[in-house]
Amino acid sequence: WGYQMENDVSRGNFFNRIFAKAKIDNSDRQLQKILNLFNLVFLGVSSTIGCGAYSVVGYAAQSAGPSIMITFLLTGALCFFTCLPYAEFAAKIHSAGFAYSYAYNACGEIIAFFTGGCFTLVYIGASAVAARCWSSYVVIFCEMMGLQVPSWLDKIEIAGHSVSCLGTLIVIFFTGLMLCGMKESTTINNFVCILNLGTITFVIIAGIFYFDTSYYTEGFLPFGVKGIFAGMGLTFFTYLGFEGTACFTEETVNPERNMPLGLIIVLLIAIGVNGGVAIVMTAMAPLSEMNVNESLSAVFAYNDAPMLIQNIIALGSILGLTASLSGNLICQPRVFYGMSCDGLLPKLFHEVKHEVLQFSVISTGVLCILVTMFFEVDFIGNACSLAGLLASAIVDISTVMARYEEDGKPNIAINFCCILFCLCSLLSGFSIFYGWPIIFTIAFVAVLIGCFIYIQNQPHTNLSLIHISEPTRPLYISYAVFCLKKK
After folding, report:
1. Would you give the distance in Å from CA 346 to the centre of its chain?
2. pTM to 2 decimals?
3. What are the start-end ranges of the H helices in 342-376?
4. How much is the CA Rg of the chain, to the nearest whole Å?
5. pLDDT tens sequence across 375-419
């Protein structure tokens, strides 16, 4: 396994190393191919559905109100188009480093290192959020069962910081489980994920009986249209994890077919689950009742739901957050592995002992414990959303850049248009959100349209990738992957 540099960067200067790209060489893999489509979908669902549906929906609703359902749909559409570049690269580049490796292949070393750092923040942060929320739900469930849990187990104050002891313990447990091997981890993950999906389905059905349309008719847009977009920061966090399916490319049987299918199936499930939970929750209780870690249990308690229903939801929430923690923790060592294979991290990170990335797993556990102990859920969620958006944007750009390379050399005009497109997208968002003069918004949008038309009219010069013409044919890959024959 590994990548070979286009030039010998060890003898090159600083700039050669920054812009050095990678050539694919998958001839010497160290990870075993043991995952099928079924395993991939459950690993992706575990990473995606958990703290978002059980906790973050309540925080996001504080920015958008009942219109958070629109925010979820818009974010889901954004993630679907973001999913296509992942599918395109994953079908071609069979690397455990996934987004990091895609950026390395198209944009060079410095951008790749930044992408790897962003996803490290995403997976460590998502695991920490799941662990903190898991701690809150465990305390609630124990109280429902008549058990008294010492307050210091949930949270204690140290130097002005809220430290989660139970959250730390669950991270230690799953770090130890990952050290046992991938087969053991996926078996437990699949079982917990099935229970999680069953609980989510029960929550949505049970919530319908407490549906109060007055929360929609009397204040559907309490913060205006800006609220819809303001909530997208946290709602994007609830979808983070679907791209983690691509982390397991190197361990997947027939990745050309199973990777694109797995990515799309996971995202469609996430859109359905997050949208359903958001619709039910915002029609069950006022916003003030949702501004807590255990927001899903809180809205049912507000409606005086039978204790049996509350117990099932509390237990299901624990299972869902357990699956989320497991899925995200499993992804992160693969990112370290890919970066280490290219020399951007010490080689300890890609050493496989007893079929386990031992040093990468332990490092992941230590980082997650530190974040879990000292940072609050809303701060981690916003930081992860920002990092995920930046990294996903880089993957999107990498797809375009890779398509228009000529004999391995970048197309300067295309690359400039990609950078200009991203810059104007950012500025147009700022201009709308902060109320800049309309002339600025028009100018930024005009540049966006111009860049888009220019790029779309250029012929593809790199035919090594599986090309998907988005957004004109976004469903093409859904059909095409079914036609690929197993090798």
Report:
1. 26
2. 0.75
3. 358-374
4. 22
5. 777 778 778 877 877 887 788 777 777 777 665 666 777 777 777
